[in-house]
From TrEMBL, chain A:
Keywords in alphabetical order: Metal-binding, Prenyltransferase, Repeat, Transferase, Zinc
Gene3D superfamilies named among the record's database cross-references: 1.50.10.20
Record's protein name: Geranylgeranyl transferase type-2 subunit beta
Keyword Transcription (UniProt): no
A Pfam family hit: Prenyltrans
Reactions that this protein is recorded to catalyse: geranylgeranyl diphosphate + L-cysteinyl-[protein] = S-geranylgeranyl-L-cysteinyl-[protein] + diphosphate
Function: Catalyzes the transfer of a geranylgeranyl moiety from geranylgeranyl diphosphate to both cysteines of proteins with the C-terminal sequence -XXCC, -XCXC and -CCXX.
Cofactor stoichiometry and binding remark: Binds 1 zinc ion per subunit.
The organism of origin for this protein: Citrus clementina (Clementine)
SUPFAM superfamilies, A to Z: Terpenoid cyclases/Protein prenyltransferases
Cofactors, names only: Zn(2+)
InterPro entries: PGGT1B-like (IPR045089), Prenyltrans (IPR001330), Ptb1 (IPR026873), Terpenoid_cyclase/PrenylTrfase (IPR008930)
TrEMBL record, chain B:
SUPFAM superfamilies the UniProt entry points to: Protein prenylyltransferase
Organism: Citrus clementina
Gene Ontology molecular-function annotations: CAAX-protein geranylgeranyltransferase activity; protein farnesyltransferase activity
Domain of life from the UniProt record: Eukaryota
Similarity comment: Belongs to the protein prenyltransferase subunit alpha family.
Keywords, sorted A to Z: Prenyltransferase, Repeat, Transferase
Protein name listed in UniProt: Uncharacterized protein
Any Pfam family the entry gives: PPTA
A Gene Ontology cellular-component term: CAAX-protein geranylgeranyltransferase complex
Length: 314, 423
């Protein structure tokens, strides 16, 4: 088993920004702000956030803000909560939350809550428990949770719980590890984890580990490094992480590294990308791999960043 | 390849975009789009005997290929056409949204048409370009005409033909259907077509969460007849795709929806309703058992069984009790939990005894033992029958086998042993 090629991953992340000549990277430009969050959080976990020009990043992020208060995935695109959370998280990494008009951003997010407690992703009304997580996480970071009806938001998330203990996008939707992270994370931040049947959900989650040690997102699917985050963080939040084999998972993630050019892929020998690089490194951080900053399983930010938000004297 | 891509001039790129938009305009029935490597053009032409008319020849050669309403776009031109389409779309949208930039309604309409044309071309190259989908919603919601809304469903299906997991394309369908559902008598017909579309896409794109999630979403619009009909129609497909957890989840959704109906109609002939519903449950259990025995070691089948058994014991049996007390004559079903559990133990026993080297048989043994332990953890006791007591004799063997075959979860198995041995 190889070691974590930390320096190579840093180089890889910095290089991703520079080469944009493939069609695949060109058609991702609408979610560049998500990409910035994945890349920069990885750098911070690796202790190398100073490898990028902070001023450049921040001035670009501010240009992505819409007059509604929400952020778009790139300059000139429509705003959506998906990118609004990424913007807030990246500014938190740089300790620059104070340059935001927190009320304006949180009014945008709070304005998307519906009567049943659910959240729309933008003005066009698509509802998903992912957006509930985003809203709750974002408002919590901005310390503006009082702008929404948290009880109703919790009630809606609970209505998306299935008989297998997992959660789907909307009531009756199939359980999926990504959605489970969102629902458990939102309930954790809202102080409502008692709604989760921890044994039942823990059982479903630990059955995501396949023979190779990797985790899948749903029954019968192939393992994928990104679930090292979604499944693992959920197991930690409900205190059932000892139900999987952590050593085998560490090995699986390390086997997905490109040892030559850096970056981590979904499965061994596949092409790397910044999304899987982030989830691989974040997963290793949750597994207490040496040399990495610890990451918070609910806020998906380094623990020192979360502590700075909530415990620093203003 | 990238050197050639970079070598397109702006005028060439604009010309390619114009060609694409002309093709889309000339054939509104295009129902499939795909990206083709330049080398495949020659092969495609040979296959059809190069019978293109001279007019087709103008805009074909090596950029586009169209026949029988199928459109192929050369991978060589993707970047320049995308850039041209994006630029044209953004500037048209900016003009459309600028107040006072037009002198009257006709100008407004012209700009709306521009946005529609460019956003369509753009979405065929970049399926999740949300701003382009949004601009179409904006324009369509100003019109609210059924044929225009149906066109949006068609475009979304076209995008799904090359990108079946496109989140934005699926989301656009839901927005359109919500618009239609407000004032339209053809909704039930549309819901049926939607369900068929999902099945068609699921056939090509296996275990597609977004597609099946859409189908689950449709259920809330269905009448009870449609729910029962869907249950019947989707059974065959599920039997042929036993590893696809999503299709079984869809069946669970339909079965629970049917039960919701039961709860609301308790007063009117509820015992007849219940007999029918119970029958559906019983048939599903029998069918699931036959699949479990035919397809060895399939996780999705065992998970489906967990749901069926638990729900039957925990919820339906209680319901039945309530119904049979009220109804006259007495409901003609009796859920005998004791013999049901004996049956399940028998099934599990027959699946765990054949431990061989074969991976599938080992998987079958693991899934069956885990199934039984799961069930007893969820339902420790029912109507005075101690289900754990029934299992006590076998629990030792099962956990030993699980610890041997599945050591990664040994903490869970240890936890269960402790749980089962509690007084």
């Amino acid at each position: 088993m190889g070691e974590l090629a930390a320096d190579k991953h840093v180089k890889y992340i910095i290089s991703v920004e520079k080469k944009k000549d493939s069609f695949e990277s060109v058609v991702m430009e609408h979610l560049r702000l998500n990409g910035a969050y994945w890349g920069l959080t990885t750098l911070d976990i690796l202790g190398k956030l100073d490898a990028v020009d902070e001023e450049d990043v921040i001035s670009w992020i501010l240009k992505c803000q819409d007059e509604s208060g929400g952020f778009a995935g790139n300059i000139g695109h429509d705003p959506h909560v998906l990118y609004t959370l990424s913007a807030v998280q990246v500014l938190a990494l740089f300790d620059k939350l104070d340059i935001l008009d927190a009320d304006k951003v949180s009014n945008y997010v709070a304005g998307l809550q519906n009567g049943d407690g659910s959240f729309s992703g933008d003005i066009w009304g698509e509802v998903d428990t992912r957006f509930s997580y985003i809203a709750i996480c974002c408002l919590s970071i901005l310390q503006r949770l009082d702008k929404i009806n948290v009880d109703k938001a919790v009630e809606y998330i609970v209505s998306c719980k299935n008989l297998d203990g997992g959660f789907g996008c909307t009531p009756g939707g199939e359980s999926h590890s990504g959605q489970i992270f969102c629902c458990v994370g939102a309930l954790a931040i809202a102080g409502a984890l008692h709604h989760v049947d921890k044994d039942l959900l823990g059982w479903w989650l630990c059955e995501r580990q396949v023979k190779s040690g990797g985790l899948n997102g749903r029954p019968e699917k192939l393992p994928d490094v990104c679930y090292s985050w979604w499944v693992l963080s959920s197991l930690i939040m409900i205190d059932r992480v000892h139900w999987i084999n952590k050593d085998k998972l560490v090995k699986f993630i390390l086997d997905c590294q490109d040892m030559e050019n850096g970056g981590i892929s979904d499965r061994p020998d596949d092409a790397v990308d910044v999304f899987h690089t982030y989830f691989g490194v974040a997963g290793l951080s949750l597994l207490e791999y040496p040399g990495l900053k610890p990451i918070d399983p609910a806020y998906a930010l380094p623990v020192d960043v979360v502590n700075r938000i909530f415990f620093s004297k203003k | 390849m990238s050197t050639r891509e970079n070598s397109y001039t702006e005028a060439e790129a604009l010309n390619l975009l114009a060609q694409l938009e002309r093709i889309l305009d000339l054939d509104p029935l295009i129902d499939e789009v795909g990206f083709i490597h330049p080398s495949q053009f020659a092969t495609l032409k040979e296959e059809i005997g190069d019978s293109l008319s001279s007019e087709d020849r103008d805009h074909e050669s090596t950029s586009f290929w169209i026949r029988d309403h199928k459109l192929g776009i050369s991978t060589q031109i993707l970047i320049p056409v995308y850039k041209a389409a994006k630029h044209a779309f953004i500037s048209a949208l900016r003009q459309y949204k600028t107040p006072g930039n037009f002198s009257g309604k006709s100008q407004d309409d012209t700009l709306a048409i521009e946005v529609m044309i460019h956003s369509k071309a753009l979405l065929l190259l970049s399926c999740d370009f949300a701003t382009a989908w949004n601009s179409r919603k904006l324009i369509v919601s100003n019109k609210r005409l059924l044929p225009i809304l149906m066109d949006e469903l068609h475009l979304s299906a076209l995008v799904l033909s090359y990108s079946p997991k496109s989140e934005q394309a699926w989301s656009h369908r839901r927005w359109v259907i919500n618009m239609i559902s407000r004032n339209c008598s053809t909704l039930q017909w549309i819901i049926e077509r939607e369900s068929e579309l999902v099945e068609k896409i699921a056939e090509r794109s296996k275990m597609n969460y977004r597609a099946w999630n859409h189908r689950c979403w449709l259920v809330s619009f269905m009448t009870r007849e449609q729910v029962l009909d869907e249950l019947k129609k989707s059974r065959n497909w599920s039997g042929l795709h036993v590893a696809d957890n999503s299709c079984f989840h869809y069946r669970r959704r339909l079965m629970l929806r049917n039960l919701e109906g039961f709860c609301y109609t308790q007063d009117n002939n509820s015992s007849g309703y219940f007999v029918e519903t119970y029958q559906i449950w019983k048939e599903e259990l029998d069918w699931n058992e036959s699949l479990i025995k035919r397809y060895i070691g399939r996780e999705a089948l065992w998970l489906h069984r967990r749901f069926l058994s638990m729900y039957l014991i925990k919820h339906m049996a209680t319901h039945l009790l309530a119904v049979s007390c009220q109804s006259k004559p007495k409901a003609s079903v009796d859920i005998d939990i004791d013999s049901l559990m004996d049956h399940e133990l028998c099934l599990v026993h027959s699946c765990s005894t054949t431990i061989a080297d074969a991976n599938f048989e080992e998987a079958q043994a693991i899934h069956s033992a885990a199934y039984m332990l799961w069930l007893t953890k969820q339902i420790p006791e029912y109507q005075g029958i101690d289900i754990q007591e029934k299992l006590r004799a076998g629990v030792g063997d099962m956990t030993r086998m699980l610890k041997r075959s599945c050591p990664d979860r040994s903490s869970l198995w240890d936890y269960l042993v402790g749980y089962h041995s509690e007084p």
